[in-house]
Amino acid sequence: MICVRLLPGGDYPSRPPPALLPPAPAALCVIARGGSAGDGPITMRAMLQGEGQGEAAREGLTPKGAEPGKDAQPSRVKPALPLHRKVCYALGGAPYQLTGNAVGFFLQIFLLDVVQCYHVPYSSLTMFLGGSQMDRDSATAYRMGVEMLSTLVGSGTQGQIVGSHHASMRKRCDVANGTLAENDTSLLPDVLENARTAYVVASLVLGSLYFLSCLVLFLGVKEQPGRYTPLGKTRLPFFASLRAVLSHSSYTRLLAGFLLASLAFQLAQGIFAFFCTHAAGLPGSFQHLVLIMLVVACLSIPVWQWFLVRFGKKLAVFIGLSLIIPSLIVITVVTHNFLVYVFMVALAGSSLAVLYLLPWSMLPDAVDDFKLQNPTCLNLEAFFYSFYVFFNKLAAGLSLGISTMSLHFAGYRATDCTHNPQVILTLQILMAPVPIALLLSSMAVFFSYPIDEKRRKQIRVEMEATGRHQGQTERPESEAS
What we know:
Order of helices and strands: EEEHEHHHHHHHHHHHHHHHEH
Helix content: 55-70%
Largest sheet: 3 strands, mixed
Strand content: 5-15%
Distance between the termini: 43 Å
Mean pLDDT: 75
Number of domains: 2
CATH architecture of the largest domain: Up-down Bundle
Strand order of the largest sheet: 1-2-3
Number of strands: 5
Shape: globular
Number of helices: 17
């Protein structure tokens, strides 16, 4: 029972003012004194019922962290991240992968033989989906599953449309070698023109899918503000924000490891179609090998998601990245054996799934670690994700430049049907030794990454404590997963 004494000198309504009511239901005893000095005390007893009975209110206590005299907000549990929001968010990753991986697998041979801002805001949207830490990891797994599926659709569409033209090029070369002089083995212009037309058709198909996926993302996902993720502009100047982000050791190590691993995969990915055509003796089969690799990668995403939840993200990175090393060695050594290549690209596809899932799953942990250490530096998610995307693009540019310049100095000519031994040796070096060296360097950097499972749990506890202070609590991990 809470008693409030109203002082004389004014008319009061029959019900006490709202500001005098406690935050939760309680018996309210109001002792009022009449307007004149001669009136005696009048006692009124009212039982007022309300909603949302909290423990602190029932006991008449001020919640922990709240200032006395202010209305206390009852603690509420964060709602689970809805499935439809996860799916719509995941579909937003399709445009980037539909076009990006078609370019990754086929731009190299397109540039040699024939002649994106979207990703930053989309990837940073991870921090504004709402839900708990486990919800965010689950949404990332949904996203990567759809991105791998869109990679499969994009590369499959591109490969089936343009792959037959590259096979016809090789057949035309075989005919030319049998009927023309040895020094007159150039490709005919009409063959290259047909290849150009095939690339245009493939681009129209992928562009349509791109627009549809963007529309689903725009209509199906709304930003959810949080304690450390308010919807607003950063208050720090640009260079101060840049210095704060790049001085965070967890993020810089994750960024360096991601750059090296991405460079290794993209170098092998960019040269793979060209390697199959000119070094492995499988010119008409590389598009099927690409499909096998991507199907395995798509199916491996749920397995690696379970593995990282069960055994931790750092262990998943080490095991996943190491799987592609024997695959690259065998692919480089063995030629003219399609069955062996099928098994090796399947193994590489499982490793490719790790590159897609783990770095993007580890980045939010580094962002949370930064926020806990720098609670006044808010709304810097775009910096974290923009550098991540930039280094991914940098790896793509470096891989393309390295392979193109290496083949140029080795004496490659697009109009030649057969290539000299230096070109073949260059392709073999670019396919295995260089990516393996980059992968080993990446694993060494990830070994020094400070956020292990123990630190992740500590971050979650600190974030939950902050959430309770703000009137929200996260659901347990088992329920969120």
